[in-house]
Design a protein that fits this description.
455 residues; three-stranded parallel β-sheet; 16 helices; 2 domains; 55% helix; single chain; six-stranded parallel β-sheet
């Protein structure tokens, strides 16, 4: 019965097609040719997409992928809960393996506090706790999966062994206090870059946040800050320009005997934010032989686009958070929480986030999110301005970073894919992902060796 019905329908369809062909014979051939052409076009696009994907995967597998900024929470470095597990953190070993991220710079971050003995003491305790946490990961919890690298040679050796790689950066030199000997102590613990300030002026340097009210503490660097620059040069710690003020950064570049880096900043011309770097500073970093690690932080990538999306999402988050029994907080308010409260808040956020994402996925006509393409626009701009040898990649994961398409370490491949789509070669992609940064580290360590020899 079904076969008979099918034959009747088929005969009617053929009859209609024949009538149409007889009525407009010139269109019949055109329609058939158009259909064939469209089919070929779709097949070509499909093949091109597959070829592009395969090419990107092969490149991603071969190059060493290195992210210069991943914040940590010491509560995620215990025997019961740590980075061997696929926990809620944006970076951990399972997510690094899923996304093909080879090197993560774990950050010893300290919030800026009072410039007095008590403040320095608390900051030092915080820094030591984070150094200890990173060492526990690589020495106790997962020595078979990840190893601490102290040089570019270490990175390549560990990568060849199949392990993931940890490196250490210090965000804010505030924990040094007024004891310059702490620079060497941090170096001995594995620190290979350090910024002189964070959000708020430190005892060593003015911060970018001074642009908010045009109030400055040192008009650049303090005398202690200048001494610390010299100490960092002497021991081989890269100086990070991501958070200090424009004037402080200019003074660092002038004083430093070695190249400098910006561990997680983007281009201010594309996104006008005080955390991003002006073309003038970018050029100075290039002239110094340094590198700028473009950051995937939404409000530093595209402030206008992010504000529209955030304003829309805010209502959704508030509703979900309320249903989960806690209150939505602004970023500034979160930063004012003590560590225990902040940890509890972020744990609640992690539980609520999948619910929000699911709700957003069902909604239509919502503002576009800042994505990987927007992020790579900054890479394109920096490459054109200062050259392929002076640009790198960072996420600021677990410190506010993350964009659509690169929301955690498991999606790292998407950055490589976008670079391949834009025509970057494997050699160029390798430079962007790691070679530029490692070259600067080599140069900084060579300067240190020369300084130590000459002294």
């Amino acid at each position: 019965m079904r076969k008979s019905l099918f034959l009747i329908v088929l005969l009617i369809f053929i009859s209609c097609q024949e009538k149409a062909k007889n009525k407009h014979p010139e269109n019949s051939a055109k329609n058939i040719n158009d259909t064939i052409s469209l089919a070929k076009t779709k097949e070509t696009v499909k093949l091109d997409t597959l070829d592009l994907l395969t090419k990107a995967k092969q490149i991603h597998e071969r190059v060493i992928t290195l992210d210069t900024h991943a914040d940590i929470n010491v509560n995620n470095f215990t025997s019961a809960k740590n980075y061997t597990q696929r926990i809620e953190s944006q970076v951990n070993l399972p997510k690094m393996k899923e996304g093909g991220l080879d090197v993560a710079w774990f950050i010893v971050y300290t919030k800026q506090g009072q410039l007095n003995k008590s403040g320095y003491k608390n900051a030092y305790i915080n820094a030591m706790a984070k150094f200890d946490a990173i060492h526990r990961l690589v020495e106790e919890y997962a020595p078979d999966q990840i190893e601490l690298a102290l040089s570019s040679d270490d990175v390549r050796r560990i990568n060849a062994s199949g392990k993931k790689i940890a490196m250490i950066g210090v965000e804010n030199a505030y924990p040094i206090g007024t004891d310059i000997n702490n620079v060497k102590k941090f170096y001995d613990l594995g620190a290979r870059y350090m910024s002189l300030a964070h959000n708020g002026h430190s005892q060593m340097s003015d911060s970018n946040t001074g642009e908010n009210n045009n109030v400055w503490l040192h008009n650049g660097l303090s005398d202690l800050g200048k001494q610390v620059v010299n100490e960092m040069n002497t021991y081989g710690i890269m100086i990070d320009l991501s958070h200090p003020s424009i004037e402080a950064n200019k003074q660092v570049i002038q004083l430093s005997k070695a190249p400098v880096i910006a561990s997680h900043s983007s281009a201010r011309t594309l996104c006008d934010h005080s955390r991003n770097l002006t073309d003038e500073v970018l050029q100075l970093i290039k002239e110094k032989g340094g590198v700028v690690q473009t950051v995937a932080f939404k409000s530093y990538v595209n402030k206008i686009k992010n504000n529209k999306r955030s304003a829309f999402e805010k209502g959704i988050y508030k509703h979900v958070y309320k249903s989960q029994g806690f209150t939505w907080l602004k970023r500034d308010s979160i930063q004012q929480l003590d560590e225990t409260s902040k940890t509890a808040y972020y744990q609640n956020v992690a539980k609520a986030k999948p619910i929000v994402i699911k709700k957003l996925a069902t909604m239509k006509n919502i503002p576009s999110a800042v994505n990987v393409s927007d992020f790579v626009d900054h890479i394109d701009y920096l490459v054109k301005l200062i050259g392929i040898d002076h640009v790198g990649i960072s996420s600021d994961f677990d410190g506010g970073g993350g964009i659509e398409g690169w929301s955690d370490a498991s999606e790292t491949f998407n950055v490589t894919l976008e670079l391949v789509k834009r025509g970057y070669t494997e050699s160029q992609i390798s430079k962007l992902w790691s070679e530029n940064l490692l070259r600067v580290l080599d140069d900084v360590q060579k300067v240190a060796k020369d300084l130590q020899t000459s002294s």
